[in-house]
Amino acid sequence: MLIKERLFTPGPVPLPPQVIKALGQQIIHHRTPEFTHIFKDVREKLQKLLKTERDIILFSSSGTGAMEASVLNFFRKGDRVLIINAGKFGQRWKEIASQFELKVVDYEIEWGKTYDRDRVLEIVGEFPDIRGIFVQQSETSTTTYHDVKFLGEISAKLEDCILVVDGITSVGVYEVYPEELGIDVLVTGSQKALMLPPGLSVLYFSEKAEKRLSRSNLPKYYFDVAKEAKKQQKGQTAYTPAINLIIALNESLQLILSEGLENLAKRHQILAQATREAVKEIGLKLLSESPSNSATGVYAPAGIDADQLRKKMLELGFRVAGGQDHLKGKIFRIAHMGYFDFNDVIQIIAGLEMALYKTGLPIEIGKGVKKAQEVILNHT
Ligand SMILES: *Cc1c(COP(=O)(O)O)cnc(C)c1O
């Protein structure tokens, strides 16, 4: 029987037809007025996305490249930094910072939970020389949302501290305005809510962060923000850019901006809520106590291996993600960031119910779907 494969993974994500069309075009040369025109347009759209007039830098790399750039360009060897380490990507901040010999205060948090405000206050009280706070606004590995505004307020009160936010699965899902949230460095990547293939990363930096560019003393060559900023202000890049991805980004940003940022955030909120409530109605437990609207992590039922369940879902045409590290085999993750609508939620819940049924669980088919339909009807 024909089965279409549907991607419900938190990166890569399905591409809108406008993006696929842009990617199918003949390449243009990047040292041309034609490219410069598109590049300037893309940078202006990114400014609208983040509601800022400041420079936004693009790198040809996956999201981790921009994470590394955030450490390399705004810190000095030996700087003390606080890492909100609540999952695989929080751990990545810690690894990058340690690799470049920053002094890491590792605030390790149980996976699926968010940080405790009092504990953060305690840590900054204990280490007044903290030069940076690192966090993911949406920790994809645990599908957890971390409030960044509070951290922005704390960071602003410290003598010389910047807030560095991994927004790779929050930008394009929430309204993320760094100037309102007190974010000094914000990074994102192409293959998540920006609805593109992997290969582009984006970096915003505040005025406060900009002052650190000249005093940073960590080794860098490709990921040099000052060098790129100078070039990119002129509509060029220091090295060959991912030309076709930039052209496609222009299309996906067009889609995002024409939907409207408030509407986009509302849509993700409804998709996530419908998924969460449907999953609970089926009798399953959510992984996160502070769930993100970009993806929903769910525990497999007792006695069932989550990866076996995922295999059943794939046989039905639904590709979802599994758990990482100690959550492997225990959870699965359903994405709803980017090019997703209400009907996608109904499909994936139907698929989940059928897969559970096929594992032999005595489940009542259609209960979750009904719940998802109700949530959607209540909100549209
Ligand atoms: C996907 C992701 C990244 C970056 O991963 P890459 O594979 O380098 O693109 C970083 N942080 C979060 C929260 C992510 O979801």
TrEMBL record:
Q: What is this protein called?
A: Alanine--glyoxylate aminotransferase family protein
Which key words are in the record? Answer: Aminotransferase, Pyridoxal phosphate, Transferase
- Which domain of life does the protein's organism represent? Bacteria
Q: Which GO terms describe its molecular function?
A: transaminase activity
- What cofactor is this protein dependent on? pyridoxal 5'-phosphate
Q: Which InterPro entries match?
A: Aminotrans_V_dom, Aminotrans_V_PyrdxlP_BS, PyrdxlP-dep_Trfase, PyrdxlP-dep_Trfase_major, PyrdxlP-dep_Trfase_small, SP_NH2Trfase/AEP_transaminase
Kindly give the Pfam families that the UniProt entry links to this protein: Aminotran_5
Name all Aminotransferase class V domain ranges. 11-289
Q: Which SUPFAM superfamilies does the record match to this protein?
A: PLP-dependent transferases
Entry's family note: Belongs to the class-V pyridoxal-phosphate-dependent aminotransferase family.
Q: Which organism is it from?
A: Persephonella atlantica
Coiled-coil positions: none
